[in-house]
Amino acid sequence: MTRFDLTLPELELYRPEVAEPEDFDAFWERTLDEARAFPAEPVVERVSSPLTQVEVHDVTFTGFAGQPVRAWLLLPSGSTSPLPAVIEYLGYGGGRGLPHEKLEWAASGYAHLIMDTRGQGSGWGTGGDTPDPAGTGPSSPGFMTRGIQSPDDYYYRRVYTDAVRLVDAARTLPQIDPARIIVTGVSQGGGIAVAVAGLVDGLLGVLPDVPFLQHFERAVGLTDAFPYQEIVTYLSVHRDVVEQTYRTLSYFDGVNFARRASAPALFSTALHDQTCPPSTVYATRNHWATDAAIEVYPFNEHEGGQGHQWVRQAAWLADRLSTIGATSA
């Protein structure tokens, strides 16, 4: 795969104008107020597991419209005081899987919450457990155009709300320090983390890894890769709804959340990535309202840095925690 996007010096300066609806803040305030009107106390049940150094808990919390959403909570065995927590959102098509598949954060001393993505979990991995009860109008296969006729009905309104509500739920758990919560994810999960960063105050950090759902207009016009191609397919059939489609997407574009982010971030991108083109990642990073570092993998595609990036994330978080500790001392 050859490079197809801007050069690295051009990416560093790329800060495009991205459409933002006038009622963006009002839309999300209303959405979250409606969701928070439902009882929020999560149900947490210890799960028997062959793991001896990590405790596994099955969590059910209240998401969009009061609907139940599933998550795993992994804790270092024997932990007694509230821990910093990493909340992870998942890549497109995957579910929360099995708890033993993601041990690195709990093995490093963090509480680790892994959110199921409603309606997904059958594209790869070991499955998901959360349905999406909402109906949809005409859409192309996949999730990108479900309910795209209106921001109120769009699929990612429900997903982003679930993600915020998991932060709310995490802050009520005795095992977690509510002042030390980090959100992260790869691809779709990175895009969800960006949205949460723009909707939730008081996060310790944000770790979007090759994030999806950024700068929609450029992504759709630049790459022929899926999932962005789902939007192309939809518009190739519904030729007269282009303006409305992009208006809906503007409520969910990572760039618009970046402008509202209050926590520092560590991004990653790969210069051969045709799934989430690097210019779309830089568009969000360069609009980030506070500090935002980025790791660049010049010769990788959408896999990005994988384990190498996790090592960088762990070091970045350790530095954040030591800085916060020194400040509070």
UniProtKB/TrEMBL annotation:
Q: Which residues are listed for substrate binding in this entry?
A: Y92
Top-rank lineage group of the source organism: Bacteria
Give residue ranges for domain Acetyl xylan esterase: 1-318
UniProt GO BP: polysaccharide metabolic process
Q: What are the boundaries of the region Disordered?
A: 121-148
Pfam name, any one: AXE1
Where along the chain is composition biased (Low complexity)?
A: 129-138
InterPro entries, alphabetically? AB_hydrolase_fold, AXE1_dom, CE7
Mark the transmembrane ranges: none
Active site at which residues? S187 (nucleophile), D273 (charge relay system), H302 (charge relay system)
Give GO MF terms, alphabetically: carboxylic ester hydrolase activity
Which protein, by its recorded name, is this? Answer: Acetylxylan esterase
Please tell me the species this chain comes from: Orlajensenia leifsoniae
